[in-house]
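FORM 12-B: Structure-to-Sequence Request
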């Protein structure tokens, strides 16, 4: 039986949900004027999280600072985020989807996959059914969605990203794949990030068709064996991943912060890294996970991004170990001069194996650190995250960052290297 998958995606979700609420109250429709969802425009940490089509016409982009958006459009209407509203709207539109499909996978707060395979006797016309779902959401809840129809999740996702808003698109046949998807640039392909797209483009693979027709060995050489093979199959319209209503386990954990005042000292950076390491490690431990890979990301005041990562021999969930690894990475990443506006930590290559081997970090204090983590987790679970903060780890680890920075600088000096990687 050939698979039939729908992908339902809310158009400009956060803005649409706020607009729908205001329209019900008799207020102007935010979707028809230059508007966006963001934070306080007086704070540099505020960014555009969603925008209207009229705002897009001014060149306003999701993720850019509110201050920059206001320079492009001084009359821009800015509304605050309301996650209680978002969660409610998300549940409502997915409940409508569950009326039609036996299996619904929540892909994110504003999109989901519907497995319609085998429903032909109930819904003989898939395109009509997609319109019925789209129209019921619009007429009942007051906001619009796009519905993509494909023979797998990837094609359904790609189809839903075609012309918006309030549309139904299909990628069901080989001819449709060749005519609608293959001419698109590889950067438009779901699953291909900026760095991968750049590598593909530099190698002469400009379109999805170029990627699909390339030798798989060549794509593996560019992107790595696992990712290369996966992306190559997707470009050909091949995707065997199932639609599942089971809650998915996180494949990575990350946390970033944009600071009110530039980071200009290692002391301040290490203090922030401690808080980030504490936050992300606590969240990871709550799900019984450990990480083999730690990475640090920074963004300078001129919006240039850099990151370093390191693979550990043994997985860890210990805050102190994650923190000290992070400050080592940061010391080799930052020149100590360029002001920073953002810093973040990501933990990946996740395992939930309860078996624990001897670790690189093994020492007399490791078990003590694990007990400290357990105690803090227990207090925070009972009384809240803000009731207990770390201090000793930061104080005792300051010299680690200074020492490692000196080692990196000395190594670069002796080798005449560029210092771009550890």
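FORM 12-B RESPONSE
SEQUENCE OUT:
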């Amino acid at each position: 039986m050939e698979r039939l998958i729908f992908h339902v995606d809310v158009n400009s979700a956060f803005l649409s949900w706020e607009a729908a609420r205001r329209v019900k109250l008799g207020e102007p429709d935010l979707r028809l004027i230059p508007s966006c969802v963001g934070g306080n425009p007086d704070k540099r940490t505020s960014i555009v999280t969603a925008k209207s089509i009229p705002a897009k016409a001014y060149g306003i982009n999701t993720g850019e600072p509110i201050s920059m958006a206001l320079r492009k459009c001084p009359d821009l209407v800015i509304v605050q985020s309301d996650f209680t509203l978002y969660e409610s709207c998300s549940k409502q539109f997915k409940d409508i989807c569950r009326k039609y499909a036996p299996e619904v996978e929540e892909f994110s707060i504003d999109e989901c996959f519907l497995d319609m395979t085998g429903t032909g006797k109930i819904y003989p016309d898939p395109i009509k059914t997609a319109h019925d779902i789209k129209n019921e959401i619009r007429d009942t809840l007051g906001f619009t969605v796009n519905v993509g129809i494909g023979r797998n999740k990837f094609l359904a996702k790609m189809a839903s990203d075609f012309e918006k808003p309030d549309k139904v698109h299909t990628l069901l046949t080989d001819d449709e794949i060749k005519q609608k998807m293959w001419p698109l640039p590889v950067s438009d392909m779901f699953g291909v990030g900026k760095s991968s797209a750049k590598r593909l483009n530099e190698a002469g693979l400009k379109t999805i068709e170029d990627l699909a027709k390339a030798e798989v060995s060549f794509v593996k050489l560019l992107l790595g064996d696992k990712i290369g093979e996966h992306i190559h199959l997707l470009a050909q319209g091949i995707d065997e991943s199932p639609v599942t209503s089971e809650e998915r386990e996180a494949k990575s954990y990350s946390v970033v912060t944009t600071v009110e005042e530039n980071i200009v000292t290692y002391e301040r950076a290490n203090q922030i890294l401690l808080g980030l390491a504490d936050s992300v490690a606590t969240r990871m431990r709550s799900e019984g996970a450990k990480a083999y890979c730690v990475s640090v990301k920074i963004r300078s005041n001129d919006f240039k991004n850099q990151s370093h990562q390191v693979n550990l021999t043994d997985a860890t969930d210990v805050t102190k170990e994650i923190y000290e690894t992070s400050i080592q990475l940061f010391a080799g990443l930052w020149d100590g001069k360029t002001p920073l506006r953002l810093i973040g930590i990501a933990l990946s290559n996740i395992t939930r194996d309860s078996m624990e081997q001897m670790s690189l970090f093994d020492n007399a204090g490791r078990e003590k650190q694990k007990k400290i983590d357990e105690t803090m987790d227990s207090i925070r679970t009972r009384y809240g995250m803000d009731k207990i903060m770390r201090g000793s780890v930061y104080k005792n680890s300051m010299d680690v960052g200074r020492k490692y920075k000196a080692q990196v600088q000395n190594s670069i000096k002796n080798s005449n290297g560029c210092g771009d990687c550890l």
